[in-house]
Write a structure and sequence with these properties.
This protein is an alpha+beta fold and 152 residues long. Helices cover 52% and strands 15% of the residues. The chain folds into 2 domains: 1-49; 70-151, Rossmann fold, CATH 3.40.50.11690. The chain is rod-shaped, with a radius of gyration of 38 Å.
Length: 152
């Protein structure tokens, strides 16, 4: 009889071990299915995701932005140059949101349409007059940045 008890307890141990193994197999199977589901969802999202729109670094190519009403802006610049007594020899529309003004002294000014044009032209007139008084020849001034960039 004692052998029978020993044998029965070993069956219980074996059945507990089998239960543990089957439990771990089930847990591993669920983890695998969860990871597989996440992978499939990621793949589906990647495939169905809208394609990226490319913006060209050079405006005018591949859907670059162009400024509407550029002739009005150039006319506004001409009237402001007359208002501030600047003799502009050449006004050109830039590729970006800017314009290039050449003054009769040879000074080139780049202004931005995204900022107040009146203030930029007034600053140009003031800068040219002050540097002329100081006896310095200005070659280029760029108003596209927070602080104007001056080149002699």
């Amino acid at each position: 009889m004692p052998q029978r008890k020993l044998f029965q307890s070993s069956k219980k141990v074996l059945s507990n071990g089998r239960k543990r193994k089957s439990f771990f197999k089930k847990v591993l199977g669920l983890i695998f299915l969860f990871c597989l589901t996440l992978f499939i969802l990621f793949c589906l999202r990647y495939v169905t995701q809208s394609k990226a729109k490319y913006i060209s670094p050079v405006p005018g190519l591949l859907g670059g932005l162009s400024r509407k009403g550029s002739s009005q802006s150039i006319q506004e610049i001409q009237s402001l140059c007359q208002k501030y007594a600047l003799s502009c020899t050449k006004i050109e529309q830039g590729l970006d949101d800017n314009a290039t003004i050449t003054v009769d002294t040879g000074t080139v000014a780049v202004i931005s349409f995204s900022k107040d044009i009146d203030k930029q032209i007034a600053s140009l007139q003031l800068t040219i007059s002050r540097l002329t008084i100081e006896g310095k020849k200005l070659s280029k001034i760029d108003f596209r940045f927070d602080r104007p960039v001056v080149s002699f």
